[in-house]
Amino acid sequence: MLLSLRVAYSLSFFNGLTEQLQTAGWVSTPADSLIQPNEETTYEASYLFFKIGTAKFHLIEKTSYDGKPAYKIVAHIDSYSGIPFVYYHAVYETYADARTLMCLFTFNRQKSGDDWIHTSYSFNFPDKEIEWKQTKDDKVIKEDILPLDRGYTDGLSFYYFVRRACLYADGRRTNLTIPIISDTVLSTVDMTINEAREPCRVPAFDFPIDSYRMSGHINFKGTFGVTGNFTGWISADSLEVPLKGDLQVILGNIVVKLKDIRGREWAPPREE
Length: 272
Prior knowledge:
Blueprint: H1 11-21, H2 30-34, E1 40-47, E2 50-65, E3 68-79, E4 89-97, E5 103-112, E6 115-124, E7 129-136, E8 139-147, H3 155-169, E9 174-182, E10 185-200, E11 209-218, E12 227-235, E13 242-249, E14 252-262
């Protein structure tokens, strides 16, 4: 019988499961075998027949932040040169709690003309505040204090949160509501994982990969105008590698596919 599990802001989901699967945040667990340092995944985005850019996720290391076990994650998002109406270059860096994958500190820099705009998010849990600040040439241009009523993912930690959720769901159809922060907006992503098992083709491999389809709704407008309904596919194995996504952005619909994976041994599950 398929399991339908509504997770209110998803913290209770991991709190319950990780109590059984982890101790102290440092012991090797199935989740730790999924999320390992040095893994680097690169995705290529396409609009109609045009390839418009790449997004690269790199899990740098397992470390600590503010006394808590944490993962340091970096992402590079770059549009290709010569693409009309598309110019985007940004570097994102996040320290995510190793146990919950909620953000502890986030920093990004985005190119604006010849300059870089730097944005930082400091998650002050004792005072229940998020200190949000933007700077340019070392001068503060915007700042705000946001309420911290619960833990939040961002674009980077969300990527690994979904993978861990799929691992724990173990192929069962599961409904999630995941808290996420984008710029100064505190919102959620509603999604259903493990909707159906089906093959998926991506440029990284020359054969169809056994995968699970997922779908959902992004309840805010994020990087590059991503919003609304989406569909995705993730590998049907213990690494739960995201393979493909169909997303709504400023241009319309774009398709994002896995182009390369490095830093770990992985034999994708072939469609039988």
